[in-house]
Amino acid sequence: IGSEVRALDGALMRELEARDSPKLREFEPGALFVVTAHGVNDPKRMKVKSTGAGVEGWISCMNGVGRAIVVPAHVEGQESPLDAVHRLRLELGSGPKICILGGTSFQDPKSEELTKLLAQRLSAWASNHSVIITGGMDGVQKVFAQNCLPGSRLFNLLPLKGSCDYGGAGKDVFAGVDLEERKKIFALLGDCYVTIEGGPGVAKEAADACERGVPVIAMRRTGGASGG
């Protein structure tokens, strides 16, 4: 709430959250709004106030096939971590969100082989009903992403000005003005976390997830932060 968003394809504003409520106004593509509330009965609806016309009402943030039609305006500091999580959950689609955590390099070749096998098995199991998310980092996350099966619902969460070199593995999505804020969002986004090796950074992200009460599955045999 309070973040600025932009309509990609234009927007039809209605008086109430209900999609059949009276129309207030139509907006052109690129129109800017400030979010004032999220939908209670329909998570694909949000209440906004137009930054130009000053009109306030309800618009849809996704179309009928699940594509985001409203995105952050990407003005630094205007999207809170919680707002980013709400937006990403809509953007990533339905199903549990499984987040992968691990070191940026492998300490043991056996851990790399385990990561490859886990990626293949998990992506095969999750393909129809779950979303897999990496943080776009080298090491464990990169190897995992590159070994997921074709067609996997795989996403890489990057800071707003970030990039990753995964060779086309997964779809990049963006949140957080820097790496630290991206990590906070990553720790709030998942419904389950899987850790492989890792150091203090992985331990911190896993601990943040544990504080929310979500399961963290540590591959203990790989050691490091995952070894307990």
Can you characterise this structure?
There is one protein chain. By secondary structure, the chain is of the alpha/beta class. It contains five helices and 13 strands. A six-stranded parallel sheet has the order 11-10-9-8-12-13, sandwiched between helices. The longest helix has 18 residues, at 109-126. The protein is elongated. The model has no long low-confidence stretch (mean pLDDT 89).
SSE pattern: EEEEEEEHEHEHEEHEHE
Shape field: elongated
Rg is: 19 Å
Mean pLDDT: 89
Q: What percent strand?
A: 25-35%
How many alpha or pi helices?
5
Low-confidence stretches: none
Largest sheet: spatial strand order: 11-10-9-8-12-13
Helix content: 25-40%
What's the end-to-end separation, in Å?
A: 37 Å
Task: Sum up the structure in keywords.
single chain; 26% helix; alpha/beta
Topology (elements, then pairings):
Layout: E1 4-7, E2 11-14, E3 23-27, E4 32-38, E5 45-50, E6 56-60, E7 70-72, H1 81-92, E8 97-102, H2 109-126, E9 131-134, H3 140-146, E10 154-158, E11 171-174, H4 179-189, E12 192-196, H5 200-211, E13 216-219
Parallel strand pairs: 8-9, 8-12, 9-10, 10-11, 12-13
Antiparallel strand pairs: 1-4, 1-7, 2-3, 4-5, 5-6
Helix pairs in contact: 1-4, 2-3, 4-5
